[in-house]
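Budget justification, computational time. The allocation requested in the original proposal was used primarily to generate structure tokens for proteins on the priority list. As evidence of use, we reproduce two of the resulting records. The first is shown immediately below.
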Amino acid sequence: MMAREQQPVLDPEVRDGGGQQAQWAAAPARLYDGLRRRRRWLVPLLVVLMLTQMAVAMVTAAAQQTPTIDEPVYVATATDYLHEHRLRYNPEHPPLGKLVIMAGVAVADPHYDASFPGSQGQVGRHLLYESGNDPWRLMLWARLPVIALTMLFGLVVLAFAREVAGTAAGLTALALYAFSPDVVAHGSLATLDVPTAGFVLTSAWLVWRARRGPGPYLPLAGAALGAGVATKMSALPAIPVLMALALVSVWHARRPEGRAERRRALALGLAGAAVVALVAVAVVWATYLAIDPRLRFSPAEPVPVIRGLHERLVELMPFPGAFRAGMRAQFGLENLPWQGYLFGRLYTGSLWYYLPAALLVKTPLGMLALWAAGAVVVVAVRRLRPAAPYLLVPPAVLLAAAMTGSRDFGTRYALFMPMFLAVAGGCVLAVRWRWVPVAAGALVAFVAVSSLRTYPYYLPYSNEAFGGPAKTHLRLHDSNVDWGQDLGRLADRLERRYRGERVWLVYKGSAVPSYYGVHASDPRKVPEDDVHGLLVVSDSWVAKARGKLAELIKTAHRIDEVGHSITIYRR
């Protein structure tokens, strides 16, 4: 009885001071348990919400946009793979990305005339507009597999950041990825840039995981790296980087102490690096073999002849002949005199600082701040420092390689930046200062608002410091602004506001204007005095306007714009 009477009573109705103190002491534990229970469903809910808004944005853009310049080529090549199983079109890019697109093409099941002669661009236009197919339906199905893949890469961003710096970092990284206008813009297209960057990111994440134990992760990392190279050749510089990181991961997993152990760890690290490279090469070969097991290559257009060091490097590559022919085509394209446009300056050739400058314009301001802070944090915070090479070195090397290119066409050549740096940006939450979560949350909210405000016009996005999407064409051109995506919207605008008026059109794109109901003439082919009515010009042509076109624009007044990529003037 005495022992029972001495037990503390914790019922709230009991007016016992000791009991109240015990309850107060237990309150934080109960609160913590409640938060943990809520987090079990809160984290998945936030992930679903962010990916859902991303999916809505991408599907909306995919459904509303006409084919961009590169898409008809990729869709036609994918259709040729599906029907003819041959390596004929678009050798400058390996097949894997087009095999992804082929999954959607197979569902659309378009009519395809394999005997049609012509270049890859002509075959693409014939497939979309001259073969009895519905280009809206075909393009939507071709884009959907890339949209699905883009969302899967979002889960890689989440997992990578979560493993490095915790759940809050993972959610922040996913938010930066899901609200990135560049990722949404190009993830909604049947193109190759997002798949390439996403596969390289996946490989880096798997190499990072190999620090726990290289067994299953290094072969998978090699497969992801091979998938990147089998999608675009621009991923090639990532091979030596990820091989070196594989060696580092094996060394860390072994934790050698004595000299003999260090030698063994080094040997195993070199073997791990070799596994990554060999599996990557095998994946590239498997991609070509999946199309034609006999690897017959019959290009529809001549492959450029290159000489000197480039030719010797191509011959040394351990890849199929069609891949090496594609490398020759890429070197041939690099030798052409391309025009660029940056901050109002039209130039021939390339500027080494073009991509950093374009990223500065086309990245939300809050995202830029978190990228910079994240890069500092992963280097400065001791427990995050091991992740710094995996997060910062691959994008730095790929950016440096891209900056040497001759085609200043857009930030799509650097889509690995918003992927890798989203992970780094999330890591700012590893800093244990009270104001950091509040500041990071405010910056993420700023990013989200900036991204949502541009909906559904993601391709011409620029941040508030540069005037927003409506002003992007004053500073950049091509796929940064105007890639031919708004021809359908132009047709709707002309029908609603300018029905019956004479239209003169200078359009940059691969779509066929007359198919969408835009019946227009080219003002550059008639005397200037004959051009009266509506003068409609793609903004990339406005940026590059010289001579007669420049005079026509100068003597007209601007009355409207479509999708922030096409300007309508009246003469």
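The second record produced under the same allocation is shown here.
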Amino acid sequence: MAAPKKGRRPAGGQSRPGRALALILIAMVALTGGMFWSGHTTPRLGIDLAGGTSITLKAKAEPGQESAVNETNMNTAVGIIERRVNGLGVSEAEVQTQGRENIIVNIPKGTNEKQAREQVGTTAQLYFRQVMAVAPAEQAPAPDASTKPAPKPSASGATADKGKTDKSATPSATASTQGRAVTEALKAPSPTPTATSATTPKATGTPKADTPADPATAALQQKFVTLNCLDPKQRTAAGNGVKATEPTVACGKNAIGQWEKYLLGPAEVDGKDVDDAKGVFDQQRGMWIVTMDFTSGGAKKFQTITAKLSQQQEPQNQFAIVLDGEVVSAPSVRQTLSASAEISGSFNQQSAQDLGNILSYGALPLTFDTQSVDTVTAALGGDQLEAGLIAGAIGLALVIIYLVVYYRGLSLIAILSLGVSALLTYVIMALLGPAIGFALNLPAVCGAIVAIGITADSFIVYFERIRDEVREGRTLRPAVERAWPRARRTILVSDFVSFLAAAVLFIVTVGKVQGFAFTLGLTTLLDIVVVFLFTKPVMTLLARTKFFGEGHKWSGLDPKRLGAKPPLRRSRRQSAPVDPKEA
């Protein structure tokens, strides 16, 4: 009989189970540490568990413009609605599309929930208003030019497409104009207006009462002085509830992300006067710009306002693009414009496309009808969560009882593996909340409960393969290694089918059902990780112990209880005895 080759391992052998256990231990410690470091130690709860309001909006196009209900316009609407709801101070609101023409808005229980419900379905208000004065977010503006903190750059200095700024302008002053200017579309930069030759720009503070262009009342001036744009509540209340024909105050961010406050004149152009707008890359100048096309009526209005603005000095030659009471851009005007215009300046691809989408939204022939408003109380959500946890605990208890009765000592390995899987699932869910906005809803809890059976099934497959090897007369250590390749194939096929079903369910469904599919897919992947990096290595190590290796009656691997065959032993063939007489 040939001697076995040195270093040859049994089929499916694992030489160093400690490495796999160390790997999963490091992963568990890292994920748990990340959870505590992030400060999110509990999974984010969905609206059906935390309580709140769920609103379903259906997009409706104007007659003859059905194509307006498309993915781009719906995503733009989602962004504006999310901006509006979160701007009210509603924390962790969820806004997402559902299908082709529906938008789902989930508003958690909060102090401004009622106000958010009132505003969520209203049409976005987009206006073009003349800028009368600009000041830092919480600074009281100076009464005249002699005491202003920093002069504004001239119109030519603020024009970023010329690549230069007024030498007297400070960085903060330059940023207040956002480095953007409006010129006629698809033409070379126009000559500088006469007004830009003025050597002393106007003050950025509140204009004097005798200023002809100043429509503000004393009360509005006082509101502008006391406005603090660093306060979210003041930002939200500043420009809301003001008629288009009235002057107002508003807040907005400049090019470097700092809040500023604006004193604005009446609306000169409505968002519906914009026919189209988009962010494009100008190949000749090598920069991102935003192009605007106006309707016939809008072109006349825009020509009137730009003719007036082009003769003003900073900041009165700027017009503010105001969306829902917030200034999203405030470019300066250098010439009279009409049907087409472009905004150039400190844009990158994202900011140019975002501004183009915002401008386009004012012209979209979309309105939203409220299809349903569902209110979930916190008590009802707590009851649902409690019921789900009780169901999960009962299911887990039944699985453990079955494992203990049928597998005895092997149930210890299964229970430890279930614990590792539960810990990883919890930590990952807690981390996915702030990372991708994952919210644990009731269907997701159901998916986690179903996963208990999927995970237990993998252990049972492996244990039964080991028992089959023991029944064949093999000792435990080789039985563990020989059973692994066969069990591994079965586990991978089973988990692949479960994951495929979860992926298909996630793709073809919408809303809360996706929570079930996501959780099911996540726990299926974790089942593979736990079986490969924990269950198999632990089984390998325990097979070396006396309790399991010698088949103790409480180990679950007692050869007598399993009906094992006696080990097959090879014996030499004996020759027939020789008769001495014949010899």
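A brief technical remark on that second record: The first helix runs from residue 17 to 38.
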